[in-house]
Amino acid sequence: MRILVLLKMVPDVVEELEVAPDGRSLDLEFLRLMVNERDDHALEEALLLKERYGGSVTVLALDAPEMDDALFTALAKGADRAVKVSGGGVGLNTCATASLFAQALSAVPNLWPADLVLTGCQAIDDLDGLLAPLLAHKLKLPYLGLVTRVEVDASGGRATLVKEYAGGVRGEFDVSLPAVLGVQAAERPPRYVPVARVRAAMKSQKIEAVPSSDRVEAATVGVLRLAKPEATEHAEMLEGTPEEVASKVCEVLAERGLL
Amino acid sequence: MGDGAVPAEQMIGEMTLENFLGFPEGRRVLTCIQCGLCAGTCPYGEAMDYPPRRIIGMLRAGMLEQVFTSDSLLNCVACYACAAKCPRKIDLTGVLLPMVKEQVLIHRPDMPSELQRALESKLRYGNPMGESPRKRAAWVKTAGTPVRIMAEDPRPADVLWFVECYTSYYPRGQDNSRATARILHALGIDFAILGNEERCAGECGPLSWEPGLFNTLMEYNMAILQKYSFKRIVTSCPHAYDAFKHRYPYLGFRYPLDHTTPFIARHLERLKPRLTRKLNCTVTYHDSCCLGRHNGFYDEPRMLLQAIPGVKLTEMTHNRVNSICCGGGGGGMWLDTYYKAKGYDRLSERRVREAVATGADVLAVSCTYEVPRFEDALKVLGYDKKMIVRDVVELLAEAMEE
């Protein structure tokens, strides 16, 4: 079983986000990037599948600051191979990201074919969760998102997936492999890897760096304006003793016809 | 006690009986007489399947797998009680148990999520709360006295004050920092801090499972310290003191070192004329494990408290070498939910009951972990009207009139 996991970096919201002077992008000066949380779940699910069915896990990522740390961490956790595509730049839109991943799959030796392509079902900069379906479309493969469990049948040609819906409803799906899956949550929380193991991986293992293809597709969607939320209305604070506040609450409710 | 310690890098990987006995502290377990003082004095000994005495016995018998897959050591709060009592002077807390803990981390897949988050945050942000490293020095604006930040003004300083995490980010910890700044200022000491360049010293790394994390933080802080010129390091955190004293020397740390409490105690005669406000309270002092049991500073905090006008000092049943841990060491700071889920008594609650029984109004501490732990425990037990928690430096600053 050959599993590919796609990782991408997203802004870490521990730092306050600022809009860049161009008004259309994030200010990169103090921005710090981290692996998309759902991608971490995709990696965990891949490692669990490898433990269950055998095979290999390859991690494919677009180069970005701190990406090497994330890839060595993935290797320390049990991934077999790490490949990063350089030259893509930070802040790509989802279409361009999908296109770079698709190109890498055909250009990098021994990456394709794979049985499963796992990635996060969403990212903080892709709340629509379009990356996995766009990639599946380019690869002409089946796609399923919001996946929380994967079971592969004995032949290795089909898988049963659990997909999560709103309100705690779950659906079970049957899909032919290879397929692209957007992972919502792994079957267990992403594992901890001792830092000593990551440091050992840095000494003993390699990240393959491949240049990105020059054929970057013309953007079909662009950002017009990026802005922080602007406060338009403020809450009215009622002050006084509890009795006074209570009677004011009653007045307000009566005024609005709610009593 | 640091002499027998093993550089963490050597400990990576699988441990066998042979390579375990190859380490000085590993060999030392062969001298254990199985008296059980360690298990008896351990505050969580009764909650462990394998208390320290049994762990040593099992290691000697080659039962490594059972030890490494047991969750017993998740209850070790690295309080140095066992090491302090061991008649064979086996450094359980400093060396032996961390060696075992590292193996437990590798062999048990289920790390409590609270602890995992804290360790991941220390690696990424340099503090266990997951706060932005760029806000580490934000408290300085509220200090009320000038606090020089080395990156902004890199002139040599007499004292480099290593503030640490809880004292930088946690609101009640910042009270400690503001008080320390006032006292250093009143003493006319030329001091500076590392500000946003500082990261957790990492003591809870080796004592809570993670020598690799500790090495990363140690290398980082050493590189930053070497950028600046100063004569002495003073830190607010006993855990950082412990790391600097016993572990950083492996990377060439040779600076004269102090924790704030003994440092101020040495300058007490000069501070006394400023201690003019009567506080009129009864205080009981909790000995921190790192400052007390591991480094022997029992008298200095008490000297400071007795110098405050109107303070009456009273002792808890367990004091000095017999002090009971607040439960925050060795990663316990991030295992409260885990302990509660297992149905264990929280050590901070056990300690607070003893403090309240003295009849004191104030529980004085000198470790940055203890303010949040004891304040929470007082609230949980309903004693928060009876007793307050104050760091020794906070009480000193309170006694100084403007």
What is the general shape of chain B?
Answer: globular
Portion in beta strands of chain B = 5-15%
Radius of gyration of chain A: 23 Å
- The average pLDDT of chain A is 92
Protein name (chain A): Electron transfer flavoprotein alpha/beta-subunit N-terminal domain-containing protein
Keywords (chain A): Electron transport, Transport
Domain Electron transfer flavoprotein alpha/beta-subunit N-terminal (chain A): 23-219
GO molecular function, one term (chain A): electron transfer activity
Can you give a write-up of this model?
The complex is a heterodimer of chains A (259) and B (402). By secondary structure, chain A is α/β, with parallel strands linked by helices. Helices cover 29% and strands 25% of the residues of chain A. In chain A, the strands form two sheets. Chain A has a nine-stranded mixed beta sheet with strand order 9-8-7-10-6-1-4-5-11, with helices on both faces. In chain A, strands 2-3 form a two-stranded antiparallel sheet. In chain A, helix 2 packs across helix 5 and helix 3 (94-107) crosses helix 4. A five-stranded parallel beta sheet of chain B has the order 1-3-2-4-5. In chain B, helix 10 (171-186) packs across helix 21 (392-399) and helix 14 crosses helix 17. Residues 1-11 of chain B have low confidence and may be disordered. The interface between A and B is medium-sized, with 15 and 28 residues. Chain A: This is Electron transfer flavoprotein alpha/beta-subunit N-terminal domain-containing protein. Chain A: InterPro entries: ETF_a/b_N, ETF_b, Rossmann-like_a/b/a_fold. Chain A: Residues 23-219 form the Electron transfer flavoprotein alpha/beta-subunit N-terminal domain.
